[in-house]
Task: structure prediction
Amino acid sequence: MHMKLTLKIWRQEDKDSKGKFESYEVKINEHMSFLEMLDVLNQELIELKKDPVAFEHDCREGICGACGLVINGRPHGPLQGTTTCQLHMRHFKDGQTVWIEPYRAKAFPVIKDLVVDRSSFDRIVQAGGFISVGTGQAPDGNTIPIESDVVEKSMDAAACIGCGSCVAACPNGAAMLFTAAKVSHLGLLPQGKIEHHGRVATMVRQMDKEGFGNCSNIYACEAECPKEISVDTIAYLNRSYFGSTFMSDLSP
Amino acid sequence: MYLDANIPEGPLEEKWINYRSKMNLVAPNNKRRINIIVVGSGLAGASAAATLGELGYNVKCFTFHDSARRAHSIAAQGGINAAKNYQNDGDSVYRLFYDTIKGGDYRSREANVYRLAEVSTEIIDQCVAQGVPFAREYGGLLANRSFGGVQVSRTFYARGQTGQQLLLGAYQALARQTSLGTVQMYPRHEMLDLVVIDGKARGIIARNLLTGALERHAAHCVVMATGGYGNVYYLSTNAMGCNVTAAWRAVKRGALMANPCYVQIHPTCIPVSGDYQSKLTLMSESLRNDGRVWVPKKKEDVEAIRNGQLKPTQLSEEDRDYFLERRYPAFGNLVPRDVASRASKAMCDEGHGVNISGLAVYLDFADAIKRYGQSEAGSRGISSPDEDTIMRLGEGVIEKRYGNLFEMYEKITGEDPYKTPMKIYPAIHYTMGGLWVDYNLETNIPGLFALGECNFSDHGANRLGASALMQGLADGYFIIPYTIGQFLSGEIRTPAIDPDLSEFKEAERDTRTRLERLMNVNGSQSVESFHRRLGLTMWDFCGMSRSAEGLTNAKEVVRSLRDEFWNDVYVPGKSDQFNPELEKAARVADFMELGEMMIEDAKHREESCGGHFREEYQTGEGEALRNDDDFAYVAAWQWLDGKDSILHKEALHFDNVELKTRSYK
Result:
């Protein structure tokens, strides 16, 4: 089925320019993905020798975490547990107006149009989101058995794709769900226990330094997370953080 | 040019161990003075950069992504092979080696493949220690599953997101080295040229994608881990950004491209649904553990299904053709990828395809759901369960194994694969060809190394499932950290390379000229439209099935398309700013040249092997017909601007396995 949509897209030349919404009409097919719709629009703009809309994308199968748009006010659009690239146009109505914006957060400056800078996430991981094991130091993989339930829980948290929708969804612009997911992924496993408290302290410190807001238990992050990561991870982080404050040399 | 693979002497199983023990080393005090550039931050690049950093070298790591975590390794679903033999089912290093050589249709190097199988076990240990949450059995030990082309269970996995978890492991190791200052990351930087000084690779020209500025980066050597070139076909399972540019720039500076025509076409992808489509999505091979591939036997049923008058679930067993089980009873649905892809294509060519375009077959889980449902009911003590209970329990088991894949399928197609069979069709997935490297993973340009999918070394003419992750991490964690010393031990007296040397300035000037030329064409057609046309030609004539006539024709088409591109492409914006269209234009320009070389390679190889199927060379039953007398060699091509590429051969020697016709019957 063919559809006609009105798109209101945020256009912004660069970090320092003032942005504004521009209006576009597109004729599309309901089987297209959301990003394919933007491809169609961009081809039309290029044919008219106009500036195409910049948006970030890569794998287009919901795993790289590069894409991420705020669609009608919701990060990654209206569907639960779905990234922007996995959203198909059959979920929209013919004649509908669709508002498309970048992720907005102090710690995610706009690069151009819908593309934002999420390098703050990398710096949070660099602050301690790892297990300190050099190549070649590992014992046999079966040396430490791990309960399958524990691995599953760790995996639930490890499924984070680092897209930043939790930050975009949060009225405070907090990166708690992202940070808590990494802390939980590693902290739940026996291999990650040794550095756990130090990791929590240094990652949280970096998170604050990057200008992310505080968590006030609104849970919009969980609602919008395309990988449906639970706010239980935040509770886990908070408990661990509290614990880490008692360790004098690591206190934040 | 004589191509010396530098394979160590001695028996196969002792080559690597002995070589490793006698290799030249670089002392820690010298490592601190040596600079290494790693291009790419996927499994191979991130693991190499992290490990080289741990060893004490100064590493600069470049990626065109905004973060190392976005590299396309992240999308690998099914798993990673290792010869652990945890299942006690007869696996061994030799068997993994043998399966890989056979799976590659006897077109890879014995010594490289044996080493890969050898280090596979260490990879699993390393990843577990890093916190990769591999699936576990109830007893807490590591779980395995089966993949195509083998009869043991040696694949380790983390749900359907194994690549993601392994990449995050490597990314975190890289993050740790970044925080320690041994690795400096350059995200949003794309390599646009290689700098060669006195015959050695000494640096790169990189474009800062945010500002458009060209930067000169110098080092004692350059390691490329830039992935494969499947996007030459436009539609593939690769990410949109995957490209050949870095590797191709090396080729333009004299590196050889080996076996470029060996590409892997994955049998289980979601079929093309329209001409607006930007990419194809893979459904993991692991699904063939439980899914059965079939098409309707009768043409009238095919018609009725295409018209929507008949549902596949209504078709009785005797009206279905489970063609993989029929043709290959020993391996059934788990034949290797090339074999499964060709069989599906043959059924569709005969008119049995089940969607409107006629290019789809079914992958059906109904039997597995029933089987698992019954056994689950049994284990829960439910006696004589009704059909609904069985289906519900069975769907639960399937969901646990493949839930995310089923969900992905439903999101894209709008159909529920628990209730109706998936529709699948083959698509371009991986490229076995790549930069020619010797046993040290060094190209013919001294000091230039290539790892992972970027090189050609381990998979021959067809890669087995779950082996790409294995190779990427083997190269990065366990091979390059040793073999790079063979080169660098001769460089300890070389002072830091000066990025103001004339070679750097010239390379920068060449790059600037090329980009300005692209900007200045100011024609009327978009980059995308050229890419699409190139892809269609490559798919039609250099895809699943190839012929001398088609390839001859395709070469002309690609050449004239290239001329048209340079005369009529339109690139918006400017070169000194963030400009994704310019990035794409430079990549498509390189694909246009690579495409010609692939066609040349496919045309010269007058045999069928692995993913390379020449219509003229097949058995009466339509199986690939190899010609070991004339073609048991690596075809390494040298590019010459404006002329035909020159072929250099590296003979393949098989001292440990017997060359046989590959049979999965």
In short: Residues 2-101 of chain A form a domain with the Ubiquitin-like (UB roll) fold (CATH 3.10.20.30). Residues 34-47 of chain A form the longest helix (14 residues). Chain A touches chain B through 79 residues (CB under 8 Å). Chain A has a mean pLDDT of 96.
